[in-house]
């Protein structure tokens, strides 16, 4: 099934560009457990991404 096939009707009807978010979710041992996808209209959101690796570094130092 294509991603566009599962989009809500309101997103399909919008002329605004869509942003597709792909997230990988990890367990406590930093192993990927699942992937999620989200779609948002580009004209309705504003966001900032802040990435840090401190938690990951500390987890691997044990």
From TrEMBL:
It comes from the Bacteria. This is Uncharacterized protein. SUPFAM superfamilies: Chorismate lyase-like. InterPro entries: Chorismate_lyase_/UTRA_dom_sf.
């Amino acid at each position: 099934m294509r991603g566009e096939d599962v989009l809500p009707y309101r997103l399909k009807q919008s002329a605004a560009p869509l942003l597709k978010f792909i997230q990988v979710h990890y367990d406590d041992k930093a192993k990927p457990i699942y992937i999620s996808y989200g779609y948002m209209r580009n004209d309705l959101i504003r966001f900032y991404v802040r990435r840090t690796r401190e938690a990951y570094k500390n987890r691997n130092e044990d």
